[in-house]
Automatic annotation (TrEMBL):
InterPro entries: PRTase-like, PRTase_dom. Residues 7-156 form the Phosphoribosyltransferase domain. GO terms for molecular function: glycosyltransferase activity. It comes from the Bacteria. The lineage of its organism: Bacteria, Pseudomonadati, Pseudomonadota, Betaproteobacteria, Burkholderiales. Pfam families: Pribosyltran. The keyword Cell cycle does not apply. Keywords: Glycosyltransferase, Transferase. This is Phosphoribosyltransferase.
Length: 175
């Protein structure tokens, strides 16, 4: 299993391909829900492309060792949305990847048990790892060797404010 390093350009191409895959399937959804943090960027771009409100549910299981060790799954109590009535009907649930599949399983159960207006949930990810217990409805890349994925924004997982200040000050033009 080799690590997979993804550039910003590749990352955006993957999100655009995911949007196309959903569109090309012919399935029409009523609501878009992304899981934070990994699904925020794909969810934001899909909400713009499909011109619909973005609903956000906070989930967390990768907290230890700069986000490299999975712990217990926490699911937020509330869904953030600029339109509280926008989570209903057919829901497209977006995340960056499906690894074990535990998050999608638990969140889907959570939605069905707590949001009676939801009639169907389909899942969309950039990467589907073969170690997953669930198969996403939409994905861009199937990763049979389960690599650790290094996404372009992960540099901020270990960057602290002092490092950012030094970096920005190093790029400033002298006055």
């Amino acid at each position: 299993m080799k690590d997979l390093h993804v550039s910003w350009d590749e990352y955006h191409r993957l999100i655009e391909t995911l949007a196309f895959n959903v569109y090309d399937s012919g399935w029409k959804f009523d609501s878009l829900l992304c899981l934070s943090r990994g699904g925020l960027r794909p969810g934001d771009i899909l909400s713009r492309i499909f011109d619909m409100p973005l609903n956000i549910l906070a989930t967390s299981s990768y907290r230890e060792a700069a986000g490299t060790v999975q712990g217990t799954l926490d699911i937020g109590k509330y869904i953030a949305s600029s339109r509280p009535d926008s989570l209903k009907g057919k829901v497209l649930l977006v995340d960056d990847l499906v690894d074990s599949g535990l998050t999608f399983k638990r969140v889907t159960e959570h939605l069905r048990n707590n949001y009676k207006g939801i009639t169907e949930v389909r899942t969309a990810v950039l990467w589907w790892k073969s170690c997953s217990q669930v198969e996403p409805d939409y994905y861009v890349e199937y990763l049979g060797d389960n690599p650790w994925i290094h996404q372009p924004f992960e540099v901020y997982d270990v960057m602290r404010l002092g490092q950012l200040v030094a970096k920005v000050e190093g790029h400033r033009k002298p006055e």
